[in-house]
Amino acid sequence: MIPDKKAVSLEADDFPGFWDRASEQVAAELIGCEFCVDGVGGVIVETEAYSPDDPASHSFIGETPRNAVMFGPPGRIYIYRSYGLHWCVNFVCQHASAVLIRALEPVHGLDRMVERRGLSDHRLLCSGPGRLAMALGVDGSLNGTSLADERISVLPPQSQSSIIFGPRIGISKAIDKPWRFGLAGSRFLSKPFKDL
What we know:
alpha+beta; eight-stranded antiparallel beta sheet; 5 helices
């Protein structure tokens, strides 16, 4: 179920408080927000939530050198490499929780995304966490960076978003949790939501 929204926003005064909440709540509220790195990015259309009591989360095993950013302050970027191939972008929430940014609708810096990805189909530029990171030029050097850093931009939605949700994908544990969130009707999702 989609969490109820609280009186917290991405505006400057509330920015720290926005992240210091349950990951599933933040994941739902990020749908429709704009995310850019060095001016390249777009509208967040798909996210997944992870928490420390979740067997699918990197933090479930406790703190390690790889996941240490998840145990630090909220409002930081946690970057990891999936299967040793693709960088993945996560936003750290309350203690040891994070939101995986799965897909964007590309809006800003399209020429740079096309060059980085080597393709021109805008629908495929950021439709998946690995594709998204490559299109935005993200690598491990951003791990631990504050989301308030001047290179990073996370802005509130321009309009009310219609959110859909369902089980997370690409995992083998806790697959029943409905912690994948998406923008209804988006053509830029990594995969369609089932039964919708």
